[in-house]
Amino acid sequence: MDILEAKKIWTNVKNELRTLLPEHVFSTWLDGTEAAGCDDGRFNLITAHAMAPMILKQQYSGKIREAFKAVTGEEYLFSIVHDEDFAKAYEKQRKKESVKAKKYGSPEDEQQTLAKENLAQMQSFANLNLKYKFENFVVGENSEFTFALAQNVAKNPAKKYNPLFIYGAPGLGKTHIMQAIGHHIIFNKPKLKVRYIKTEEYVNELIKSIQKGSETNKRMEAFRQKYRNVDVLLIDDIQFIESKKRTMDEIFHTFDSLLNKNKQIVITSDRIPADIPTLPTRLKSRFEMGIMTEITPPDFETRVAILQNLAEQEGMNADFSVFEYIATNFENNVRELEGAYNKVSAYSIFSKSPMTLELAKKVLKCEEMQKNITLDKIATETALYYGVTLKDFQSSSRAQKISGARQVAVYLSRELTGENFEDIADFFNKKHPTMLYSYDKIKNELINNTKLQNDIKEITKKIRG
User: Fold this and answer.
1) Residue (of 52, 73, 66, 83) closest to 21 by Cα position
2) Closest by alpha carbon to 338, among 459, 141, 173, 168?
3) Are 315 and 348 in contact (CB under 8 A)?
4) How many Å apart are CA 102 and CA 92, to the nearest integer?
5) Long-range contact list for 455-458, CB < 8 A, 24+ apart?
6) In what order do the strands lie in the sheet with 291-294?
7) How far from chain centre, in Å, is Cα 186?
8) How high is the mean pLDDT in each 10-residue block of the chain (465 residues)?
9) Which residues pair with 267 in a beta bridge?
10) Does 428 share its domain with 391?
């Protein structure tokens, strides 16, 4: 769900809540709230009032869910946090409108409406999700350098690291950090124009602009100005421009235009520029001329911290063993980790059950999934992915294509089943030391090899169904 649709739904939900709650409750705790986005059936709300999260969760969460059901016909969860930047901007706008009201006699409700519309307009132009801020990003060893660079860019756009190129496997927080840069600039340097765009959306806009018709030139000029008449351009998932010649040409000229005007550019990708096939040399050089930084999968401690942060934002009480259980079983990326937590949290809320280890095991069924993963299934899916056969794995062939794929299958066999190396060696018809070597080789390569990280992720998905 995009941000504008989320805002529209929340506005309708607030109108519904106005009929369900006393006026003093609504005006005190709900009026200064804003939808920051909606992910996986959960609305992310921010508020200008520091006490509102606790009050709304403890006393009015049932009414809020009832209002969502009345407006949308669906069950929605919600999280709400106090946002200092939003609060400052909200109060500043309210004071401004208060002065205007005294001068022109505008009613109080008009003041509040204008204040919120001003913020919404500023945010929607940038196309950002207010959920993604520096304050709620959990920093670990896997991301601390990238996080520091992003904060520097947010405080000093176009001064040093330009462009900033962030790369890493999907679901690790690249979009979060990129949008956090945009939010910091919006709230602290409001005169600067910020725009965020996913590469796929950029491509779709370009296609619409070049469709045949008498207005093609006019549409193309408007399209170009939309992305060149900004101070900060944030482009997500740049790898999707691969093999799209017209898009690559437009991106190149847009980059040149912005860099010549000393405007900040931030890019994310699932791989480094050199690993994007068909990318022209001139674009590679533009992408690499600033600084490139990688985000890697979070370690166990960071995963636990991320889960604790999610629970804290929601005001949920959970046994620490729940965080350990989820962090142990969901290692690949933050998105999967959050999805697992949200599933347990939702079940806890709707069943009115405490978040215990027993509940987490019942909902996620990780042990059951583990039992269904066999060495044969792992080897078969890995062989299919790399275009070889199970028979190849168990043969004496040392061809690079086969041995490389076999090493991945060995690594996944150990990681997904926990089988000992002797049993893995028996299955692959190999010696025990060869299995140890294969496992360690892949484990070490995963640290810096983005393509291998993506391969492991995709094969694991197929294995788990």
Assistant:
1) 66
2) 173
3) no
4) 16
5) 455/385, 455/408, 456/332, 456/408, 456/411, 456/412, 457/169, 457/170, 457/332, 457/333, 458/385
6) 194-198, 232-236, 264-269, 164-167, 291-294
7) 19
8) 87 90 82 86 86 79 89 88 84 70 51 48 68 87 94 94 91 92 85 90 89 78 91 93 88 93 94 86 91 90 91 83 90 85 88 90 78 84 92 88 93 83 89 88 85 88 80
9) 165, 235
10) yes
Q: Which pLDDT belongs to residue 114?
A: 46
Contact status, residue 173 vs residue 137, Cβ threshold 8 Å: yes
- Strand (E) or helix (H) holding 417: helix 400-417
Instruction: Give the whole-angstrom CA distance, residue 223 versus residue 99.
Output: 38
The shares of helix, strand and coil residues in the chain, as percent rounded to the nearest 5, are 65, 10, 25
Q: Are residues 198 and 304 in the same domain?
A: no
Domain assignment present for 440: yes
Q: For the chain, how many structural domains are there in total?
A: 4
Domain that holds residue 12: 3-123
CATH number at residue 444: 1.10.1750.10
Residue 56 tokens read as: 């709304």
Q: Are residues 26 and 106 in the same domain?
A: yes
- Whether 94 and 210 share a structural domain: no
Residue 136 inside a domain? The answer is no
**Rounded distance, CA 436 to CA 438, Å?**
6
Residue 188 and residue 289 in one domain: yes
Q: DSSP string of 2-23?
A: -HHHHHHHHHHHHHHHHHHS-H
Q: Are residues 332 and 391 in the same domain?
A: no
Q: Give me the amino acid identity at 267.
A: I
Rounded Cα distance, 321 and 332, in Å = 20
Distance, CA of 75 to CA of 218 (rounded, Å): 44
149/267 same-domain check: yes
Q: Do residues 264 and 323 share a domain?
A: no
Task: Please indicate, yes or no, if residue 405 is contained in any of the structural domains.
Answer: yes
388 within a domain of the structure (yes/no):
yes
Nearest C-alpha neighbor of 314 from the set 85, 54, 59: 54
Question: CA nearest 259: which of 186, 157, 178?
Answer: 157
The count of residues in the chain is 465
Task: Using alpha carbons, select from 193, 192, 185 the residue that is nearest to residue 152.
Answer: 185
Closest Cα partner for 447 from 306, 297, 302? 297
CB distance 165 to 279 below 8 Å: no
CATH assignment at residue 223: 3.40.50.300
